[in-house]
Every structure is written in structure tokens, then in C-alpha cells.
# Entry
Amino acid sequence: MSTPALVHPRAALFDPDELQAPQLPVCDHYSGVEERMRKSLALQAELGPVFDVTLDGEDGAPVGGELEHAALIAELVNGEANRFGRVGARVQPAGHRRFEDVVDLLVARAGPRLAYLMIPKPRGVADFQRAATAVDEASSRHAIGRKIPLHALVETHGALREVDALAAHPRLESLSFGLMDFVSAHRGAIPQSAMGVTGQFEHPLVVRAKLEIAAACHGRGKVASHCVVTELKDAAALRHAAERASREFGYTRMWSIHPAQIRPIVEAFAPSAAEVDQAGEILVAAQGAGWAPIRHRDRLHDRASYRYFWQVLERAERSSVAGGERLAAEIRQRFFAPASPAREAAPAGGEAPGPAPQDGFAPP
# Structure
């Protein structure tokens, strides 16, 4: 009697039409000054693609020098230091006088290699659609041959009011929370303390905004990215904030604004060694049982818990820095090696599931 083919978790545990969020690195590092941008790329080359580098064309560009700064960003995106293809750029808001010029330059010179473009300060879906149209028209004009993924910052009242519609937009990959501008938009009604590492997790209006963004992203299959911590030298406070963002507020990604913040964020968003070991044991046993219910350490597990433990392994894989892998070799080979049979096998009559196609868009 032949042994049944092992079915990979992605094929066994998810419906073909089920929305699944993109597998983005858990940290998004921002830099806008040339020296720091180059250092960020060098650090990414050292640690591996456990964090994205976003080259900042909004706050990083001098007034009147937006195009020159965009040209520098395009040069860095195309350079040898971009080893993993995980370098994006933040552009100006859609209403900025140089927005379309900057987008056109970046798409023309670096479109094939841009991991994404970050759109700041949309006042709602209409603003984001305007930005998406400009990017797509530039891509068509310059024959890029792809749709560049788009991220957006929720930092205005309008964006928060329409956050679910923003998350539903088919051109959006990730939503970030812009804490500083959001607090400032309340004209003093939210105190300065709410921008700090403790207050941002306590003030009701800030907490509400964070939770609404996270819920919208999870409901629409997008990535929720947490805001910055400005206490640059308080590593313990940063790690505590990152742990709360990940484990209490439902975020799967977080901004860094200083190189020293990258490792603590990656560590905080990674599952513990005990969690990884448990997930590996359960999934190996479940796969061997054809994904039927199993008993593991006197607890019953079925497809619902298998899905959770598979996501634990995915987070461990995404947060493994070079030379510091979190997965055992057997688990990596079984589930993450590109040519492994367990990765490629799919249920009879079906392909491995992916995000449902979204050809049109109508705000709910």
C-alpha cells in the first residue's frame, strides 16, 4: 500500500477563495538622509530580509529638492546594496504639488525593483484612489509590466473614518498608523503624553484608532503596521511597546526609525522558542494524520488550531535573521524548502490557495 502524499499546510488549511495577508517582514525601517539610507541598506544586507527599508521621500526630502531626493532614492533602489528586493519609498501626499512628478520619476527609474510605495496622509478612499491611479498610470506609461504594491498611512480623521474601505481597496497591501500626525490633528484635545511609549497604549482615542486599523486589516487580508516609538535609547521600553503591539493590539509589523530599534522589534514580533517547538510538533503530527484531529500532550487539536500553529511557524520564518534561524532544520526543510513535496502537494482537484482576486473596487 502506497504512502499518501503529504499535503502542505497552505493547501490543506485554507480555502481557495480565502483572503490571506501578504507575508511582509515584521519590521519596516525608515530613513531619509543619504548617509542613513546607505547604512540601512548595509544593515539589511547583514541581517537578511527580516526588515524592509523604506527610503523617505516625504520627511527626508528638503523643501524644493523633492525631485533630486527622489532621484537619489531611485539610485539606491537600483543599487547593489538592495540585495533582497525589499526596499520601498515613501512619497509626498497626493495633494502635494510635486506628488505626480516624484511618482513618475521613481516609477520610471526604479519601478521594476520597488518593493512598494507608501502613500502618506490620505484623507480617505478618494485620496488613496487618486494616488493609486497616478502610480498605475506611470507604470503603464513607462511599461513597467507590474503593479507596484501600495501602502498607506492612517493619520487623518478622514482616513480613520473610512479605514475599512481603505483596507478593502485592491491596490492596498498594508496600512500603518501615523501616531504623531493623528494626535496633532486633534488640536490639543489629546495630550502630548499620548505620543509617548506608554501613553499611546492608554489614551482612549489613540487606542481606538489602533484597534480599528488592526481590525480592518485582518478583516480585509491586509497587513497592519504599528507606529513609531520615539524613545530611541530606551530599549526596554521599545521592546515592551513592540510586544504590546504584537500580542495585545493585533499588529504584525512595526516601524523603526533608528537602527538600534530593528533587532528589538524583530525579537518582540517573533514567537518564542517554546511556541515554535510546540507548533512544529503539532503540525508534523497533523500532516502525518492527513490533517485529521490529533491528540497532543492530552489536548485535542484540529484544523482551527492547526491554522494558528502554522501562522506561528510563518512568523518564525519571517523573523529569522541571518545566522539565527528560529526553525529546526527538519521543519524548515519540510515546510519552507522551495522544492519540498510537502510544500508543493495540494488536495486533489485544487491548487494551493492564495488571495482571492479583486478586479474591481466598491467601498462597502
Observations:
- The chain has 15 helices and ten strands.
- The longest strand covers residues 51-56.
- Residues 340-364 have pLDDT under 50 and may be disordered.
- Strands lie at 27-31, 51-56, 87-90, 117-119, 150-154, 172-177, 223-226, 253-256, 294-296, 299-301.
